[in-house]
Amino acid sequence: MAPKTPPAYDASLADHGFEAKELKGLTYPLGDHAPQYGEIYPLAPDLGWTRMPVPGNLAHINLWILDDGDGYAIADTGLFMPGTIEHWKAMFAGVLSDRQMTRIFVTHFHPDHAGCAGWLANKFKVPIWMNRTEWLMVRMLTNEQLDHPPEEVLNSRRFAGYDEERIEEMRKSGWGKFARAVSRLPTGHVRLDDGQVVRIGQRDWTVMTGGGHTPEHASLVDFHNGMIIAGDQILPRITSNVSVMDSEPEADPLGEWLDSIAKFRAALPADMLVLPAHGEPFTGVHVRLDKLASGHHERLEKLEVALRDTEMRAVDTFDLLFDREIDDSVYGLATGEAQAHLRHLHLTGRIKCEIRDGVGWYHAA
Hints:
Blueprint: E1 21-23, E2 26-28, E3 41-44, E4 47-54, E5 59-68, E6 71-75, H1 82-93, E7 101-106, H2 111-114, H3 117-124, E8 128-130, H4 132-143, H5 151-160, H6 164-172, E9 190-191, E10 197-200, E11 203-210, E12 217-222, E13 227-231, H7 253-267, E14 273-276, H8 285-306, H9 318-321, H10 331-347, E15 351-356, E16 359-364
Parallel strand pairs: 6-7, 7-8, 8-9, 13-14
Antiparallel strand pairs: 1-2, 3-4, 4-5, 5-6, 10-11, 11-12, 12-13, 15-16
């Protein structure tokens, strides 16, 4: 079905002609409507929404096309893979053929967001606007390709409870999968700092950074028009992965994530329209942020109580933390998230950790 053409701009999206949907305290003004891959749906005269494919359960990533003077800017880019590239090329030959790209904004370093950034920047000779830390993460990870994982990485998986069979599979699989889904960035970038105000077309967007999901994920907030390009910072139905990263094995990403939730909760108006990286645009941001925080606190409490009865490794906590079977496709993500919850409990003095034969065993304080 062809997308409906919205009438005059309405920040609530109520005039777009779709039946709004209410679910778990959130309102989806466009219901379940979403653009097809490579189609641009106009949320406003100067703001378009498109999607690109992502393998696995995510299925898609939302990307945003913003009027920028005589041309257009984009926010996030999709994975650097044939399907995404073909959709971009079709848009350049079709709906975007009479306009020039001006710049590329990237919320954070993950491949579904930064993947095509380098390819697009080199193709159109335009700058990438990105938080410095996130940009450096991409530069580092695209250059890190090895035949085998570093030994300290394998030791960290032993610490989490991986058996030697799983360790050996990791060893054989090489190191550097990130670079397979991300094009090489140009030498330089334009930095996005927390609190910075960026003019894009006729809108002023305030940069808000948050930690935990990545080191300095950058969202763009249009306070005047009441909307936020949220990336993975605020998702409507799923919770962003919060993991202990190999680059910072002693960090407390869950503590950073909870602090970020509080930061966004205090700064964003309750009626703000959220443009998330996955799912559909929604309102009810305070409800969602409260739910994200309470969900993590509930998991922390559940872990703390369970560890009073028995000691556990990170891999032993999956049934307590997740409502799905953890298979090989998500084993690494689940391990990182389990470690993040255990580390937060440990660093806040709620549990203790003993290392025996290189394995971390957690128990009640």
